[in-house]
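in:
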């Protein structure tokens, strides 16, 4: 059993609690650029962005009649974002948002899949700053789109919705205003963050628990506890496969909701 205690006894399976809970969320810099410390999280963010750029460039730089495997994959992704999300969801004017939605989807997908990538095993989207930044970019985009399309009426229609009985307008207007300008960016970020944190913690607990059941006090394997450890590992591997599906699904949902929010600004009549 793994127990958090004030005193440490690693050989006995007791893990000491940190003096400050913030220690669990602080990544020490692995190197410095001038006075700026670059942590593992910073490095993985840059790495994810570079992977997306390289992948898209490799698939789109030379279009041939008989596409290569990577060109086929990239073109399929572009078609998915353009046809199924940008055009079907946003409608007229949606083609202008294809580059953003494609970049958004690919970056989140790569960042999510870091969770199940050997030697990395850390989804960058489990750090709230990343989903929050991406949701704020979407927030700015649909606000700008709404103001450009409707002018000041974008806000007046939120506060005083047309087509409703006067008695209901203050209540509905308050709900719409809070939902559009406050709830949307927060819920968009928290949804992605919470799903990736939950999956990451679940995998870590299952695999580490399996390890501690099999290896204790320098003994490998521990007699009598092998079936328990193997069971934890087996369950962990099942969750491992499930998290791949979750990573893809959450990238798609974040991109789809971004398109929905843009659509409500461009086509409020719908």
């Amino acid at each position: 059993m793994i127990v958090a205690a004030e005193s440490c006894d690693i050989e006995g399976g007791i893990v000491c609690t940190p003096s400050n809970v913030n220690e669990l969320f602080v990544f020490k810099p692995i190197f410095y650029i001038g006075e700026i410390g670059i942590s593992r999280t910073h490095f993985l963010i840059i790495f994810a962005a570079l992977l997306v750029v390289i992948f898209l460039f490799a698939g789109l730089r030379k279009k041939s009649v008989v596409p290569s495997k990577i060109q086929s994959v990239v073109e399929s992704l572009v078609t998915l974002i353009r046809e199924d999300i940008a055009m079907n969801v946003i409608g007229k004017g949606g083609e202008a948002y294809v580059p953003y939605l494609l970049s958004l989807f690919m970056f989140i997908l790569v960042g999510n899949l870091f969770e199940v990538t050997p030697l990395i095993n850390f989804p960058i989207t489990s750090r709230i700053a990343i989903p929050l930044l991406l949701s704020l970019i979407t927030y700015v985009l649909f606000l700008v789109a709404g103001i450009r399309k409707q002018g000041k009426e974008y806000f007046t229609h939120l506060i005083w919705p047309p087509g409703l009985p006067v008695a209901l307008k203050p209540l509905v207007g308050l709900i719409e205003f809070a939902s559009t300008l406050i709830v949307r960016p927060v819920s968009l970020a928290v949804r992605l963050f919470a799903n990736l944190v939950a999956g990451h913690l679940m995998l870590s607990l299952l695999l580490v628990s399996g390890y501690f059941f099999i290896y204790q006090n320098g003994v490998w394997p521990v007699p009598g506890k092998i079936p328990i450890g193997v069971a934890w590992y087996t369950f962990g591997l099942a969750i491992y496969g499930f998290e791949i599906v979750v990573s893809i699904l959450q990238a798609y949902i974040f991109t789809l909701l971004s398109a929905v929010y843009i659509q409500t600004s461009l086509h409020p009549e719908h």
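note: The chain is about 65% helix and 5% strand.
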